[in-house]
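Quick start: what a row looks like.
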Amino acid sequence: MTDREYPLYTIKNNCTDCYKCVRACPVKAIRIEDSRAQIVPELCIACGTCYRVCPAKAKQPRNDLTRAKHLIESGKEVYVSLAPSWVAEFANLPAENMIAALRRLGFCGVGETAVGAEEVSAHIAHILGEKKSGLLISTACPAAVEYVRKYLPEMTSYLTPLSSPLLAHCQMLKDKLGSDIEVVFVGPCIAKKLEADAHPNLLSLSLSFGDLRQWFRDAGIFPEDIRTSVYDKFVMTKAEEGSAYPIEGGMIETVKPYPTAHNAYMMQISGIQNIKRELAGLNLKDFDRPIFIECLACSGGCVAGPCMSNRTPDFDKRLNILQNSDFSKQAGKRQAQTDINLHYDKKPVKDKEFSEAEMKRALTMIGKYGVEDELNCGGCGYDTCRNFARAMLAGKAEPEMCVSNMKQQAQRKANALIRCIPAPIVIADNNLNIIEYNDKFVQTFWVEETLGDIYNKNNLRGADLRDFIDFTNLFSASLDLEQDIRREHIRFGDRLFDVVVFNIDKKQIVGGIIQDVTKMEMKKERIATKAKDVIRKNLTTVQQIACTLGEHMAETEILLRSIAEDYAGGEISDSNVENTIKSYGEKK
């Protein structure tokens, strides 16, 4: 099964590696790959918790809207099984308007899933009447059923051997309208897609309320404004007490009126974590009567389902559901009529076991060298450090998920950088109290005479930075302007400093690197002075050379002219040349 074939999947590019889904997932069905959270179908129960909590909307339910449209266009007879929670999603919308809007989309008719719920309640009451003791766990919620089969496999035999209200309704529709019809569910549940995948002969596909709203928008249909007719009624019959199923305890309320159920203890559990806590290790020997447990994956019931887009308070939704339920007629009097028996097999999830040596190696990777290092903070999404180590060994987690270890690593790296940088470094808060500093800062700015009576030289955290330097205005300005500030050749005492001030946490924390450039500037001045001396001496030498060259040029010119004149008056003998050169030498 590919990622997008499962009812829930991850849009990888949207994932911001916040690990919120890992923390929230009740069964830890999330694998971290390349810092992206991926759903593991074999572990997932499709409760939709990750979809509900993901801040980046990287977790999404499989969109079956296109398939639904193609099903309508195929020409087949397609009916809707409408979840009873629709009255909480589309508050104040008359049933006739909803039916008319769905029929305008192309559906042949609309039935209430709650009718199937009433059939299930009749069957449960019959089973309870035949039992003297023992446990029955409801199978109305597919996510809760999936949890029991995978994570409490020893309790699978106690699942009520009945199909869910949705599958029961699908069977009733096919028995009444023909086995070749197609049924599409519309409701707030993602796990219903699991039922569609597992029972395609009964349920063609499942849409969320959000999908339906999108379809209405695409088709330009506004249910509240649509004109209805006498044909806009629920097919078969209108649900009565079964409409209470979407709220916590609603299923029990439909079973209680049956005389055969009066001898049974009944209780409801909602929320996977609560189911885990209540059912795990349950001692069945203490039961002297039949016990029926209504299990719902969503706390509060289906009205709090992951695909409920109506954000009104749950109290209002529950009240709306109760007001739409009718317990005055057939409650407790129905006879089971449809064969909705269903057997559930175990689907145990087996965790791989790891040796203590492997566990210690994994714990070492996240800085846990002993029990005292195991904070069990839960930041990674796992309740203990050892469970996180198991997840790493199983390939479901990465060391970077350990918040405490990453924080310690960052602190160690920052401290190493601060310690090793040769220039004075100081970090201060918005009140200019010192948060962090290095030894070079103390060596440069500690003055025993003025500061020794105020501060401890070995611990300056909390000290007022203004007591050490007089250019703290740069730090204040950086905090106010939220900008880095650079200044060169700031004079402090008899020294010069180049200062870089930078924001670490806007308007809260600021840091500064202060470089003493006094020696460097003095060296520059000495070099400049020497260079000027050299230049002055060179100019003097050049002037002297030029003067000497000028004299030589003048004398050479006199010599050449004398030779030329002698040549013009007659032949020049070697003795004449020698005498001329000799006379030039005497003149010189």
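That is the whole record. The chain has a mean pLDDT of 88. Residues 518-569 form the longest helix (52 residues).
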